[in-house]
Amino acid sequence: MVVVFGSLNLDLVARVPRLPVPGETLLGSAFVMTPGGKGANQALAARRAGAEVKLFGHVGADALAAEALALLEGSGVDLTGVTPIEEPTGVALIHVDPQGENAITVVPGANAAAGAAQVPDSALVPGNTLLMQLEVPLTEVAALARRARARGARVVLNAAPAAALPPGLLDDVDVLLVNETEAAALARDLGVDGMDALCRRVAESDDILVVTRGGAGVRYAAAGDITERAAPRVSVVDTVGAGDAFAGALAAALDRGADIDRAISEALAAGALACTRAGAQAALPLRDEIRALADRL
Hints:
The chain is α/β, with parallel strands linked by helices. It is 32% helix and 26% strand. The strands form two sheets. Strands 5-4-1-8-9-10-11-12-13 form a nine-stranded mixed sheet, with helices on both faces. It has a four-stranded mixed sheet with strand order 3-2-6-7. Helix 1 (38-48) packs across helix 6 (242-256) and helix 6 (242-256) packs antiparallel against helix 7.
């Protein structure tokens, strides 16, 4: 089972002719509200990729909560670990340009109260995969990673958005997933000279580092090797859900027992397919199409 501890948001998405610069007001061409939040997105991505998934986090006791949970409920994600509190449901304000690039502002709301204690020890057992991100308090992420590692669960951390990680957190992570910007920030924090040095450092350990590179594909370090893989060529509608699709599919494949090379293939396929559709959760692909594309990579 994939256990996800993370954020749940409602995404407010505006289509714009280009991304705004500071002080600028743009006239948008369309607006939609869709469920989001990296925790919720990755939970749904893992579920659609074929995993049994349980999500832990908070929504507000407000009108936005039902909309934020709608697709998760309809897809069979276990939401018994999601509790409403007297804070507003988190929101993300998203601009998307005609090329599919985006700029995002996240207001955490109820997500700021998410706590490691919400996840029981019974969920952190050998054979389960804990998937986390950084849109909930970092101290709680670190505390949960420590418990999960001690109890034998696999710990997958998508260190996004970029942040200074609490001391010791990486010692409790089995699989670290970052994009190039986040990898550069992590390298600076660890005092290593760039992404290549970071990959070499991880490759020498028992851990796995995965660095996503957008349309350029992925670089990953595991079992002493550093490997680069190209991304599938697709027609991009928008990239909002790509990173979360990648993370959820990666966790689902590893949880199923796939080796890292196959897991990367499925994650690349899921991320690419998500780019071919608008939105975050609505764009997440299903298991059969992910595996069919992965088989060709």
